[in-house]
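User: Teach me something about this protein's shape.
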Amino acid sequence: MCGIIGYVGKRIADRVLIDGLKKLEYRGYDSAGISVFRDNKIELFRKVGKIINLETELAEKGLNSRIGIGHTRWATHGKPTEKNAHPHISHSKKIVVVHNGIIENYQQLKKKLPASYKFISETDTEIIAHLLEYYYIKLKKDKNISTQNKYLLAMQKTISQLKGSFAIVIMFSDNQKEIFAVKKDSPLLLGIGINEMFITSDITAILSYTNRSINLEDGDFIVISKNKYKIFDKDGKETNRKINIAQIDTNVTEKSGYKHFMLKEIHEQPQIIEDIILTKINRENNEINFRDLNLSKKDINNISRVIILACGTSYHAGLIGKFLIEDLAQIPCEVDVASEFRYRSHNRVIDKDCFVIAISQSGETADTIASFNEIKKLKPKNLMICNVINSTLTKKADNVIYTRCGTEIGVASTKAFTSQLCILFLVSLFLGRQRNILNDKRYNEIICELLKIPQKMKNTIDSITPVMEYWGKHFYQKNSFLYLGRNINYPIALEGALKLKEISYIHAEGYPAGEMKHGPIALIDENMPVLTIATESNVYEKVASNVEEARARNGKMLVIATEGNKIIKNIADFVCFVPKTLDILSPIINIIPLQFLAYFIAEMRGCDIDQPRNLAKSVTVE
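Assistant: First, the predicted structure itself:
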């Protein structure tokens, strides 16, 4: 959730920290702060709200420190206030920390400290600073322990008390040349520059300075100074980790002329889908190639059922994946919200013939990680669909397929969602082909249509943008929306409603169109827009009937329909036409107008589209 950065080197630290925090702001933006040394003392600077508030204050300070740590916060414990903002400082102001994650037992730990330790925040993080100081003071009295070891031992003793997930970065007031850090179940990496070192929760924060990094493992402790670093494993043994060379294009963190990152990312979708298709399909024989998928034909034929785990938008992708897997591979499929699945009796529902697919844009989603950890104990075949290379979930999975859609800055997911759909479609086709479910004729017809999808996405963007802007002008003042869909497009109704909720703050509900009459129909009147996905499919007539039912209750009917449908205007108040494609591919097209509608409504309401209130990009806490 939150963003962390630390720096030691040749540059002025606060400038590097602010630059990094701006690039991490999509991970949390309730408040932000930095800590640097000034006049041999630890100084804190914290502000509520966006990074610009903190940057404005620092511009007047004339700081000249070459070492510091920073943090942008998504609130978990305590409201977004200055006293709850990171960094947090210890009782005697000798130790300062930033933290991402949750300390589950912080209340109990507070009671173990002497009464003289006063807490000024409502956070779980402050306990870390106080515990570090408590142990460090004790260790300083032992003349048999070197100063360097005292820092690490204080950290080890503190970490041994903590329950939960964390990435923690620390500075000690009596050491103005080094930064310390430790991680468990929360992302943290080391950036290696020339005469400078970085520590951060996301490589995008430091790509302007270096593309060389090390992903830290759970339990790793690290010490960085201007010219060197040391990594210690959970047992305190110095160790080496692989240096990675980042391939990320720094342009992904720029808007490239678009007003918002979300708008840019919507427009990027056709190219991303084209790239996925071209890299996964051999055009000589149309066969799908997952080179790194460690599944034999026998393994695939032995799959008894598929279980998909995900949260949020990825969960909606998983729901569509269920339709695809059951249709194209004829394997029973269940989809679970990871935050609920993690508390079920897994040994009753998982066996060695299950195939578990986890989906996460970031690969750091806490609930999905927790569920996956439980599943791994039962040793089923598994697959991770993820966008972020070397993220926590990708390291845990036996098989990984990367969506490779580039860093998604807009908090409301767009291109990550459609790239997940494309990968799920290809996986379903691959499974069906391996199980001899799809004959050559149907398989090649599907591949032929899939190859046309990127151009159809481009055509959709070009044709529906003014239509959705027109819809936005008519409906941005409404307080509630109902989204309806059936079969494979029911999850698109859910995702469309979620997009509207996320960035416009309008209440929106996605519902199966056939279930509307079992409750939601009571809400429909002239003030309730009802958006229905009624593209060409084997349930089109059923959906059209549902439109008629809502229209009879004076609802304002907005319909997404297939080009060439000449009848739909007779029953709809507003129609948006999209290109014709196979029903199983239609979600990739049909989500685009819903993304645009949410965008234009939010823009007309004056909302913060890229950083909507109360949300963060990577949900690393429960």
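Now, about its shape. The first helix runs from residue 13 to 24. The two ends are 11 Å apart (CA to CA). If you'd like, I can walk through any region in more detail.
User: That's plenty for now, thanks!
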